Amino acid sequence: MSESTAAAPLMIGVSLKMYFGHARTLEWAAAVADLARTHPAVRSGAVELFVVPTFPALVPVHALLADTPVLLGAQDLAWADEGAFTGEVSGRELAEIGVDLVEIAHAERRSLFHETDEDITGKVHAAFRNHLRPLICVGEETRSSSADAVAEVTAQLDRFLATATADGIAGRVLVAYEPVWAIGAPAPAPVEHILEVLAGIEHHLAARPALAGSVAVYGGSAGPGLLTRGRGRIGGLFLGRFAHDPEAIRTILDEAEALQQSGARA
């Protein structure tokens, strides 16, 4: 991990997917907001939190987070900004209601809804032109060597960014490395594999000036202890069902604070 990346705050985020109803989502968001107001890892800037609820919850969750540094994410966006696209939500509207970042290219979108590289490339372009930070998910479908995984996921990233890069609007991205074979698994990928692939992604990002300030984090059954096992070399975590309990998020924040205190993230 480069010095500039090591000095950056840890990015810790949670996608709720479609697990919660509306009332439970708001209750959860209020608890996360309280946690962000009081936890030293967030207050010091050592951790930057983001939450990704469902579309109907975005406006009220934005209100709940108003006096906190927590970033608000959306789970998807349309590649078009307006028009006759029934059921879609535009990046223009997401920006208008206060969304900060938008998740794109998750493996479930590709497998369940058959999103193509062309679809994803259009969505990344839409995010950039509406001043939303793309949260781009990448990952190999089958387990392979770390070198092969780096080659595969960086090629995915290049394809997804191609149009925005060609048009000169690409900028800071948040890359979530989520090996498909580890999503929903009982345990994350081996730590050394995670470290080597994240380092490969970070090196790839650092070589592209247009993407300055970009960060890579790990998803795929991430949980407590992973930051510690990563010895300060994991730039953040994208959490799933583990974080449905706000106290579980506190556990991760405590771990991040301990890493900072130990000097592992200095």
From TrEMBL:
Keywords: Cytoplasm, Gluconeogenesis, Glycolysis, Isomerase. The keyword Isomerase applies. One of its GO terms (molecular function) is isomerase activity. Pathway: Carbohydrate biosynthesis; gluconeogenesis; Carbohydrate degradation; glycolysis; D-glyceraldehyde 3-phosphate from glycerone phosphate: step 1/1. It is found in: Cytoplasm. Its main location: cytoplasm. Gene3D superfamilies: Aldolase class I (3.20.20.70). It catalyses: D-glyceraldehyde 3-phosphate = dihydroxyacetone phosphate. Belongs to the triosephosphate isomerase family. Homodimer. This is Triosephosphate isomerase. It comes from Curtobacterium pusillum. The lineage of its organism: Bacteria, Bacillati, Actinomycetota, Actinomycetes, Micrococcales.
